[in-house]
Amino acid sequence: MSTAILGEDGLARCPWGLSTPDYIAYHDDEWGRPVRDDQGLYERLCLEAFQSGLSWLTILRKREGFRAAFGGFDPEKVAAFGPDDVERLMADAAIVRNRAKIEATIANARAALDLPGGLAATAWRYADPHSPSYADTSDVPAYTDASKALAKELKKHGFRFVGPTTAYALMQACGLVDDHLTTCHRHGAALIASPLSSGPEALRPR
Hints:
By secondary structure, this protein is mainly α. The chain contains ten helices and two strands. Strands 1-2 form a two-stranded antiparallel sheet. Helix 9 crosses helix 10. The longest helix has 16 residues. The protein starts with a strand and ends in a 33-residue tail after the last helix.
């Protein structure tokens, strides 16, 4: 069993959120909070794709390098990248140098700009405020019907490296579902809502 664990500060957290200071900050301040702007969703989608096959800690520690390399994850800037930019990125040790993922990041910027209604509005159509809550990490799914549908929708519009598992990781990270364990102090803090309804402004890491 992997239930929430008390930290030295007396707060219960999802087990993965206690292993390093990087994870504690990410777990407490970001993971599961709603992200409702296109640029914020695009950044998370790209980082989740780069994470495939690697630890999330590797991505967190390279995050500022990614932001510098990809123009702050501004889709308009990245969409304008060409072959020279791909070679520049392949030589940049501050990021994960994977040609297929780099090219997918550029293709996804173009797809995001062409997406009717925008990336955030598209993703939030698949949010589920009534999704199940879990007390143990072994019960948390790797993907759901909603993430399969979201992945299919994005692929239809030209997105790459967006399978059901990556789509579900995006949903978890951006508050489309609340997968903080029921005894975690962050559970219920996501305030899942439609991007068209009133509520907290998009929380995007700075």
